Amino acid sequence: MDILTVLEERFENNTLRHPGLDWQTASQKLQKNPDILKAACAMEESGGEPDLVVFPDGSCALCDCSKDTPAGRRNLCYDREARLKRRKAPCESSAEEEAQTMGIQIMDEAMYRYLQTLGEFDLKTSSWIRTPDSIRSKGGALFCERRYDAVFTFHNGAESYYSVRGFRGYYPL
Predict the structure, then answer these.
(1) What span, in angstroms and rounded, lies between the C-alpha atoms of 19 and 1?
(2) Per the confidence metrics, is the pTM higher than 0.85?
């Protein structure tokens, strides 16, 4: 199935995510940018279920909206530096490296928390989020998840990875 067809169906089935945005306008923006369509395909193939999200400031982005962190993007440490430092049981890649390969960015905490107002995500998984340099420079990285009807932000060593932790990405429009 064509990625635009997939995106249109998801767009029409999840109108709460993009108030005030119609498919014709969205489709024109998407078709003008081959990089976003390429990123959308990568997001879809890895289980991200991308959809357009309009944020409170009026900005719009193609975001991972899968119920759990995308299945094809788990078992990843935070970044390349962390991956290379891990000597015992190294992981194959990192969230930042995968995001770069896909042409997307890792969501930050504000984006992640807003996404959670549009539905319940990561009830059984967790997602790395963009980590401020002040934390990353000390070896840490941040991740979020939803439990008990609340969104939690946690820290971990950037080199850690788990079978239920991946990352959510986005591509700004």
Answers:
(1) 26
(2) yes
